[in-house]
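We append the chain.
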Amino acid sequence: MPELIDLLQWPAMLLTVVAAWFVGSTRARRRRAGFWLFSAGNLLWVAWGVHAGAWALVLLQFCLGALNLRGLRKSAAADAAAVRAETKR
């Protein structure tokens, strides 16, 4: 079982890279998908970090999760403002 947990770092890394790509999109739907991919990657990193005793990594993932939530809210607010601006035209 510990060998399987050691392998979590690879899908976690892959999810993180793909999430960063999606979050950089100009499309709101892709940015939201990036948020959820980042969240999944954070969970995998936490699981691996707890197993490996990498406590700084675990704390980092919680901090990054909080920043992801902040970004999601700001992105939603910007998207709503853009929709309002379009409807005024």
